[in-house]
Specification:
Strand order of the largest sheet: 1-7-6-5-4-3-2
CATH architecture: 2-Layer Sandwich
Number of strands: 7
CATH superfamily: START domain
Number of domains: 1
Number of helices: 3
Largest sheet: 7 strands, antiparallel
CATH topology: Alpha-D-Glucose-1,6-Bisphosphate, Chain A, domain 4
Distance between the termini: 25 Å
Radius of gyration: 15 Å
CATH class: Alpha Beta
Helix content: 10-25%
Shape: globular
Low-confidence stretches: none
Mean pLDDT: 92
Length: about 150
């Protein structure tokens, strides 16, 4: 199991950053390799990804969610992954978004990519694109303020 930790500061209030992160179906707009996400219900999503020429579909479950604080998830089946995104108020208009991702590289190509730091680079790029996306808009595309314990 590999772990990646990345963070970025975004120039929006914590509620704006958090609200946008709860809009999973918008992830393809800033996450490289994510083709589509369908929100099945409050705690389940279906992902379709294309990374390194490999297309996959998998289900994920929100395991914990607290407004303006955190969203944690885990994959239901293969590929094995889990993670948490936390939101930290730095000022009224600045938020630190932190991502921790635990994943199990599947196969030789993914193991090599992990060793070369490609996944870490991808997460960093996704956060930079999230920053551009949310700062460029200035507001979120929607929000889900429910609490999952």
């Amino acid at each position: 199991m590999s772990t990646i930790e990345q963070s970025i500061e975004v120039a929006v209030p914590v509620s704006t950053a958090y609200n946008q992160w709860t809009q999973f179906e918008s992830f393809p707009e800033f996450m490289e390799g994510v083709d589509r996400i369908v929100q099945v219900d409050d705690t389940h999503t279906r992902w379709q990804t294309s990374i390194g020429g490999v297309t996959r579909e998998f289900d994920a479950e929100i395991t914990e969610q607290h407004p303006d604080e955190r969203v944690a998830w885990r994959s239901v089946d293969e590929p094995r992954q889990a993670g948490v995104v936390t939101f930290h108020r730095l000022s009224a208009d600045t938020t630190k978004v932190m991502v921790q991702l635990d994943f199990e590289p599947d196969g030789v190509v993914e193991q090599a990519g992990d060793k070369l730091g490609l996944v870490k680079h991808r997460v960093k790029g996704d956060l930079e694109r999230f920053k551009s996306f949310i700062e460029g808009r200035g507001n979120e595309t929607g929000a889900w303020r429910g609490d999952v314990r």
